[in-house]
Structure formats: structure tokens, C-alpha cells
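Section 3.1: Structural characterization of target chains.
Under the original work plan, the team committed to producing a structural model for every single-chain target entering the pipeline before any wet-lab resources were allocated. The record below documents one such target. The sequence was received from the expression subgroup and is listed exactly as submitted; it comprises 240 residues.
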Amino acid sequence: MKKETNKKLVYIALAFVGTIVAIGLYAVVINSYVQEETKDRIVFDITDTEGVIPGEAMKEIKALDPECIIVLGCAVKEDGTPSDMLRDRLDAGIALYNQGVAPKILLTGDNGQEEYNEIHAMLTYTLEEGVPLEDVFCDHAGFSTSESMIRADTIFSIRRAVVVTQRYHEYRAIYNAGKMGIDVLGVSASQSKFKGQAYNEIREILARNKDFLLFNVLTPTAVGGEKIDITGDGQISHGE
């Protein structure tokens, strides 16, 4: 009887280990697939504050004829100013705007709590850097990368864009945009190296798997609202 019990325990343990291995392999495969599908859409890595786009990359961007530059939000500091990572994204997006890559900038991030407001920090910084009010649009309900891209389609009706974020995040952002029918190219904000990047990379593998399931198996959703014309005056989206 004891031997039978031990055998059952061994079988259960093997099944458990096998399941974990299978899930791990699946995660690796999906992660690789998302990266392979999107890597050629990242046309340039900005590595300095000037953010000058070279000729070949600019040629590819101009061929796309983007309607806007989408800058994805991330953490802000306790004083309400952009974190270093977010500042790099904003600087890259502003550099692209100043080079005439697109006529508008869409800032998208988390504005779901009174005490935490990525959009306010992003808008304030962008305006202080000299981008005209009317050329800056705000998506106050971009609570995640998937929601930002869903709303880029459903609220702003964007069909062509340049996406700005750090390279490790670009793959998922581009993949999500493509699933929403938005033709995008990525320009990575790679001006700085940050502590905890290994953690970010591991977390992003899980996030890529999550969004793959979201767009291919489940039903992706985001906060709705009135449509906003990305070619119009951005002030309509600034809120109070």
C-alpha cells in the first residue's frame, strides 16, 4: 500500500514538473514569436539627447507618412515630474516632432488616480519643451500598453504612427498596434541605461505572453469615449 502511494506521489510530481516545463516552453515560444514578428519595425534607437534620425531610417518613416508620434507613459516621480525613463521617451518623441516626422504627438498613460497622473507630467513637460498646445493630444485612459493601442484605434482612429518607448517594450507595443490594424514603426528611447533592467526584461516576457493571449484568444477591451480627430486641435483632449 505504501509503495502504491509513493508511486502516485511520483506520478503527481512528474505531472506537475511536466506542466511547469510545458508552460515555460510555451512562454518562450510566444515571446520569441512576438519579437521576431516586430523586430524589423524598429527602425532606429535614439542614444543621445539630439535624437537625430539618419537618412535611411527617416526615408522609411516618411514612406509610412505617420499621422502622429505615440509616446507611451510610465512612472512619474513623487513630485509629479517624469521619471528618468519617461523623460527619455518624451525627449525622443519631441525630437521626432521637431524633425517633422509627424505633425502631432499622442501622449498616452495612466490617469486613473487623483494622486497619480502620468498624463499631466507628460503634457507639462512636452509643452515646456516648446511643442505647441494644438499639436499635443492626451489619452487619459492608456492604463496599459494594450489599452493605449486599442484607444489609438477606437478613439483617435489612428492608422499610421511612430511609437516611442524603450526597445525592450517596443516589440509588444508594435505587436499590439498591429493587431488593432495600425501600421506602426518604432523608434526606441535608448538614451540611458537603467537599474533593474533584468527585472524589466523578465516582466516583459510575461507581458508579451499576456497580450498575445489577449489579442488572439480573449477579447481586448479599453475605456470608451467620444472620438477625437488626431488631425485637429489637441487641446480638446487636454481636460481640466
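The beta strands are 42-46, 68-72, 105-108, 136-139, 160-165, 183-189.
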